[in-house]
UniProtKB/TrEMBL annotation:
Pfam families: tRNA_bind. It comes from Mucilaginibacter gotjawali. GO terms for molecular function: tRNA binding. This is tRNA-binding protein. It comes from the Bacteria. Gene3D superfamilies: Nucleic acid-binding proteins. SUPFAM superfamilies: Nucleic acid-binding proteins (SSF50249).
Length: 111
């Protein structure tokens, strides 16, 4: 495993946000949703998330997630993904969201 310095870690903008809206994303190569997330003073941003195996569209709004906000936007099919949703692959490679277990202000930085 490669090590990094604290200074390098601090450059990664891991932020808390609340999911506002979830839409199907049939144009994606792998099953995914388009999710709209409120990051407080950092704004409302959209991302593509391959989380359809473990989550329904109906259960996601209101849930807080962790996103990486300082990657360049990435075009996925006809959609611009503005941040990276964080999660872990289960034993089948399906993504389980990284969790926040108590509410924090949207836009809070992981420290």
């Amino acid at each position: 495993m490669e090590t990094i310095t604290w200074h390098e870690f601090e450059k990664v903008e891991l932020r808390a946000g609340t999911i506002l809206e979830v839409a199907d994303f049939p144009e994606a190569r792998k099953p995914a949703y388009k999710i709209k997330v409120d990051f407080g003073s950092l704004g409302i941003k959209w991302s593509s998330a391959q989380i359809t195996r473990h989550y329904t569209k109906e259960e996601l709004p209101g849930r807080q997630i962790i996103g990486v906000l300082n990657f360049k936007a990435k075009q996925i099919a006809n959609f611009m993904s503005e941040f990276l949703v964080t999660g872990f692959a289960d034993e089948n490679g399906d993504i389980v969201l990284a969790a926040i277990d108590k509410p924090v202000p949207d836009g809070s930085k992981l420290i």
